[in-house]
Design brief:
single chain; globular; about 60% helix; mainly alpha; Four Helix Bundle (Hemerythrin (Met), subunit A); two-stranded antiparallel sheet
């Protein structure tokens, strides 16, 4: 399927890259990795993936997008209310501790990434310009979608670091493999002669 032109397509391309790699990593990870964390007081691998997912559902809710899972998590809470916003954060933390098994974690992560994609595809330029509140600042729905993408990539890096520290080989080719064998200086392009 050809990419949608402009920024909407670029956004979806970045989201698809994260979705593809995160789900491949989650699927390839051994079950033992799901309960493993690199140090006391850090999230286990399962919680890193669930954290990505709950953040997606939470940010969609903040953007005014009501998904079935978002309503299940947050009901009709209004994120403009500070008390309800704090309740959303508490619910997210509880969900990170509740979903710990590999199949449940993968399913929850997959559903969150699909929800972001579907909501983005359903957003017009006018909808993205709509004002929203985020961390005490007036902004737009578009910024909340950017936060979803940035946050997903940020914690994808964390999940990759966990997997590597655990000794797991990543389930996709290393794009830098073989660079150590490349010459330090590339040959100059030949100058055309007239």
């Amino acid at each position: 399927m050809p990419r949608i032109p402009g920024f909407p397509g670029e956004y979806l391309g970045e989201l698809d890259m994260a979705r593809t790699q995160l789900l491949a990593l989650a699927d390839a990870a051994p079950t033992q990795l799901y309960e493993w964390s690199p140090a006391p007081g850090t999230r286990p691998f399962s919680a890193v993936l669930v954290h990505i997912a709950v953040a997606n559902f939470c940010l969609l809710h903040l953007a005014g997008v009501r998904t079935a899972t978002g309503i299940e998590l947050y009901g009709e809470w209004e994120p403009d209310d500070p008390v309800q916003r704090l309740a959303m954060v508490r619910r997210n933390l509880a969900t990170e501790r509740a979903i710990v098994d590999k199949p449940g974690t993968i399913d929850f992560l997959r559903r969150s990434l699909e929800a972001v994609q579907l909501a983005w595809l359903d957003s017009s330029d006018a909808m993205l310009e709509q004002p929203r509140s985020f961390i005490g600042e007036e902004t737009t729905r578009r910024r909340l979608y950017l936060r979803m993408l940035v946050h997903t990539h940020e914690h994808m890096g964390q999940a990759i670091a966990y997997a590597r520290t655990f000794g797991m080989k990543l389930p996709w080719p290393d794009p830098l493999a073989g660079l150590e064998n490349m010459p330090e200086q590339m040959p100059a392009d030949p100058v055309p002669t007239a």
